[in-house]
Amino acid sequence: MERPSLEFNLPDTHEEGKLYIVDSLNNLNKLNICPDEAQLSLDEEENTGGTGERMAGSNTRNQCLFFVTFILILIISLALVSFVMFLILQTRSEVDQISSRLLSEKKNIEELKKINNIILKHLNQSGIKE
Question: Which keywords label this protein (predicted)?
Answer without folding.
Answer: Membrane, Transmembrane, Transmembrane helix
